[in-house]
Write a structure and sequence with these properties.
One of its GO terms (molecular function) is 4-amino-4-deoxychorismate lyase activity. This protein is α/β, with parallel strands linked by helices. It is built from eight helices and 14 strands. 41% of the residues are buried.
Length: 273
């Protein structure tokens, strides 16, 4: 395997660059210690099995967080199939290319405290069960969805699949409480199975459901979350046309799930409301 690079130079024939043939992970690292590392490595391993890319050795991966340095960092790992093959047909003997980069990170505590405004996206995610849950390099759908708005007051966009079923936000997972039960979209056809989502489902009873946007109209609380930003309460949901579809006041019901998430990430777990 090619050596990991902190300042990556990728040749034009790299299959990750040419075809999106690879995987990536973004890991929150605090003073050299990675958060939710087992969940990240489990997802990476699943992706490697699915794509048929050899998983890097544990010793090679486990040493990278310490190289991120002191303070709060985001460590990005990119694993491609490497170079070789003919067109879409890969070489029968893959020589993966592992790249990494660590950057400083500042969370947004005002979004933890006061919540966020989000909107529905017009784009619909394609259904492809073989790739469902993976954090693969083909993220054009997310790029196109994120281009739908430039209003700084809108923090995220909610995505449905081509059948109209709720899936996720552009870069976060979606959770809600309905009739006293915690729920999150089932990701068996598309979407990214986030590592914070996985860790919360190990701790709490969170039902995976296949439901349309009407479920949010029935919700007592809605959140967006990932392993970098933590958990944001949703206080307003707009349609793709800007019309208001729902609103919530941040209260104690939001803080229960938020405390669980933030304990996992080392973020503040106590709030004023």
């Amino acid at each position: 395997m090619n050596r990991p690079q902190a300042e990556p130079w990728v040749p034009a024939d790299d299959r990750g660059l040419a075809y999106g043939d690879g995987l990536f992970e973004t890991v929150l690292v605090r003073d050299g210690e990675p958060l939710l590392w087992p969940q990240h490595m489990a997802r990476l391993a699943k992706g490697c099995r699915t794509l048929g890319i050899p998983m890097p050795a544990a010793a090679e991966l486990d040493g990278l967080p310490a190289r991120a340095g002191a303070g709060l960092k985001v460590l990005k790992l990119i694993l491609t199939r490497g170079s070789g093959g003919r067109g879409y047909l890969p070489s029968p003997v893959a020589q993966p290319r592992l790249l990494w980069q660590a950057v400083d990170f500042l969370p947004q505590p005002q979004r933890w405290e006061s919540g966020v405004r989000v909107r529905h996206c017009r784009l619909r995610l394609s259904v492809q069960p073989l790739l469902a849950g993976l954090k693969h390099l083909n993220r054009l759908e997310n790029v196109l969805a994120r281009r739908e708005w430039d209003d700084p007051d809108v923090a995220e966009g909610v995505l449905c699949n081509s059948h109209g079923t709720l899936i996720e936000a552009t870069c976060m997972n979606l959770f809600w409480q309905r009739q006293g039960c915690l729920e999150t979209p089932r990701l068996d056809g598309c979407g990214v199975a986030g590592t914070l989502r996985a860790a919360l489902m190990e701790r709490l009873e969170i039902r995976e459901v296949s439901m349309g946007p009407a479920a949010l109209a029935e919700a007592e609380a809605v959140w967006l979350g990932n392993s970098i930003q933590g958990l944001w309460p949703v206080v307003r949901l707009d349609g793709a046309d800007g019309s208001r579809h729902g609103s919530w006041k941040v209260g104690p019901v939001h803080r229960v799930l938020q405390r669980e998430a933030h304990e996992l990430l080392g973020y503040p777990a106590r709030f004023t409301s």
